[in-house]
Amino acid sequence: MEFDLEQTDALLATTRAVRKRLDLDRPVPREIITECLELAVQAPTASNSQTWRWMVIDEEQRRAKIADLYRLAMKDRQSVTETWDDTKAEDRISAQTARVLDSAGYLRENIHRVPVFVIPCVEGRPAPDAAPASLSAIYGSIMPAVWSFQLALRSRGLGSVFTSVLGFRERDVAEFLGIPDNVMQVAMIPVAYTIGTDFKRAARPPVSEIIHWNEW
């Protein structure tokens, strides 16, 4: 099988974290979510464990409740961040990061309008003293599938963004949605069609500056 490298590379290089360009008024059919998840679960998992699980929320009232918890989680995160570093934000962020923060604020205010939320989960939880190898196995069993899901969405004209902040309210989310205690939520992915599809490569440091051959 020969791949069209130009299209493949464009898909990989231009799948952005989409917030402001989510189409909040266009419904997303369930069959598209299912189709993208069917591709996502082809991703490799640690020891072929296949422990990923997917919580999809498309009912308006349930999305509203998750949106409320998302906003509370944002406040939780801000409180934690302020204890880490009391340096003024404007003194430590780049212009690009400032744009990301601005779009994050837009998503916070409009999160309830996003037509679909997808919460990728994994069965099992790491022990408090889990070794890095154990953590790698757990997250490595879900993260490749998450990225495959986001790529599949992008190729079909939909956008998404990987958000982790809802984890500050994981217990509340689990109780509301009936998620079992042994199932760990790893993210919440807002999904919608995009306004336009002309996404471009992001500014990134040259690989030559961040790659190490054979020794650090």
SSE topology:
Blueprint: H1 5-14, H2 30-40, E1 52-57, H3 60-84, H4 95-110, E2 116-123, H5 132-140, H6 143-155, E3 158-160, H7 170-177, E4 183-185, E5 189-193
Antiparallel strand pairs: 1-2, 2-4, 2-5, 3-5
Helix pairs in contact: 2-6
Question: Your description of this structure?
Answer:
It is built from seven helices and five strands; from the N terminus they run ααβααβααβαββ. The termini are far apart. The chain has 216 residues and is an alpha+beta fold.
Number of domains: 1
Count of discrete alpha- or pi-helical segments spanning 4 or more residues: 7
Name of the CATH superfamily: NADH Oxidase
Secondary-structure element order, as H and E?
Answer: HHEHHEHHEHEE
Overall mean pLDDT? 91
Percentage of residues in helical conformation: 40-55%
Question: What keywords describe this structure?
Answer:
43% helix; 5 strands; 216 residues; NADH Oxidase; alpha+beta
Brief digest:
This protein is an alpha+beta fold and 216 residues long. It has seven helices and five strands, in the order ααβααβααβαββ. The mean pLDDT is 91.
